[in-house]
Design brief:
It is a single chain. The protein contains 21 helices and 12 strands. The chain is an alpha+beta fold and about 425 residues long. It has 4 domains: about 160 residues, 2-Layer Sandwich (Beta Polymerase, domain 2), CATH 3.30.460.10; about 80 residues, Orthogonal Bundle (Hydrophobic Seed Protein); about 140 residues, Methane Monooxygenase Hydroxylase, Chain G, domain 1; about 45 residues, no CATH class. Helix 8 packs parallel to helix 10, helix 12 packs antiparallel against helix 13 and helix 12 packs across helix 17. It is elongated and about 85 Å long.
Length: about 425
């Protein structure tokens, strides 16, 4: 063990040190051994701010969590079957508290069987050496670093290394995580670890994961600071092909993926649209938007995509090609035509359309669509208004509303009164 108290005081915020000191005091009062573990320790050694505190207790983690809740006037939400608890403090920050445990896997990709254990066995169940360190939080050796597997050395050398040869067999999700941490920290997957990853991918261990677990890992990867690097690394290691088989270095899909980030930067600078599309959703859609139909359906089946997500992607795929065809014609479009071009697409698909057809003309259309036409297209009249004017409910209503939207966007109508006059002139 190594005393890192000076590092703790140097790199943590004052309020974090006060919190840790309070936990040390409570651990001493209740005679339990408590440790801060995982990403918090890793990032402390890397001098990266991390506000997520994970505690492991040798004993009853849930009981200790409730003790802390009383001390800090917080609340807890516990899961008895896993021996875990989430402590919410008054400032709405969270501390995850777990009972030290060991895990057993009945077969590859199975969810683990859990048993209470020691801190050493708890660290031994983790994914990579850099995530398998702990800091002791009791008065006998407070702020001592526990590093059984050489995590500190791997941090200094920039390696992502698994703890044992069966790691990817036990949990193939670790393949995604290795890539995520490698790209986040600009590290390198250690050679033996990479070979075991490639073997696991070649032996189709990813296929043993449920679609939901794969989607969860993909989402985490695409939420990284630079998702393109992660997607590219998945492609290099043939992981991407396990769920998006048409992506390759020469594929049109890949050329779209490469341009997403620059388009998102342009959108943030140019547009006033509220709520830019989440980056991960844009990249996720980008994997499938131009995929051939048969390959897409195979991917949907493989990932067991929820109906809401698969319908979203199908709808965007349906209108994407038509919108691209119209933009490729390079003829000038009326405002109402621009509105029609984009209105059936999600904002994520509009980003991908820009990545596909990026030009001054298309950028102008997108800027006008989000900043002007979407607001202009909001008509005032309702179906009840049309009936009061003497119209019978039916398909004609859709034609009226479409004509009103076009007239508003094209600047022919600007108020409710003008909408009434427009309807009377054209439909009554």
């Amino acid at each position: 063990m190594k005393n890192i108290s000076s590092l703790v005081k140097e790199r943590l915020k004052k309020e974090q040190i006060v919190l840790l000191d309070a936990i040390v005091e409570m651990a001493s009062i209740h005679n339990v051994s408590v440790y801060v573990v995982g990403g918090f320790v890793r990032d402390l050694l890397l001098n990266i701010e991390n506000l997520d505190l994970d505690l492991v207790v040798e004993g009853n983690g849930i009981s200790f969590s409730k003790t802390l809740a009383e001390k800090f006037c917080g609340s807890t939400k516990s899961h008895q079957e896993f021996g875990t608890s989430k402590l919410t403090l008054q400032d709405k920050s969270h501390i995850d508290v777990a009972t030290a445990r060991t895990e057993y896997y009945s077969h590859s990709a199975a969810l683990p069987t859990i048993e209470p254990s020691s801190i050493k066995l708890d660290l031994a169940r983790r994914d990579f050496t850099v995530n398998s360190m702990a800091i002791k939080l009791d008065k006998q050796g407070v702020f001592f670093l526990i590093d059984i597997f050489g995590g500190e050395i791997d941090l200094k050398n920039g390696f992502i290394r698994i703890l044992h040869d069966l790691s990817f067999i036990d949990d193939p999700c670790r393949i995604f995580r290795a890539i995520r941490f490698e790209q986040r920290f600009n590290f390198r997957i250690e050679d033996d670890t990479r070979d075991l990853m490639l073997s696991a991918i070649e032996n189709k261990l990813i296929d043993q994961l449920s679609g939901q677990r794969v989607i969860n890992e993909i989402k985490l990867i695409l939420n990284e600071y630079d998702p393109k690097k992660c997607v590219d690394r998945m492609r290099q290691l043939c992981l991407l092909q396990t769920f998006a088989p048409e992506i390759s270095s020469h594929d049109f899909n890949w050329s779209v993926i490469e341009k997403i980030d620059s388009v998102l930067i342009w959108l943030e600078r140019i547009l006033s649209m509220s709520g830019h599309p989440p980056k991960w959703r844009v990249y996720f859609l980008g994997l499938f938007i131009t995929m051939k139909g048969v390959a897409f359906e195979k991917s949907v089946k493989r990932l067991h995509l929820p109906i809401k997500i698969s319908n979203w992607i199908r709808l965007d795929r349906k209108f994407f090609d038509e919108s691209k065809r119209q933009l490729d014609e390079e003829k000038e479009l009326k405002p109402s035509q621009v509105y029609d071009l984009f209105t059936n697409l999600s904002s994520e698909a509009v980003v991908l359309l820009l990545a596909t057809c990026f030009s001054e003309r298309v950028c102008s259309y997108v800027e006008l669509y989000f900043n002007q036409y979407c607001e202009l297209a909001k008509i005032k009249l309702t179906g009840d208004d049309l009936m009061k004017m003497g119209m019978q409910p039916g398909p004609t209503f859709n034609n009226v509303f479409k004509a009103l939207r076009d007239a508003r966007v094209n600047g022919q109508v600007a108020s409710r009164d003008e909408e009434v006059i427009f309807v009377r002139s054209n439909f009554l």
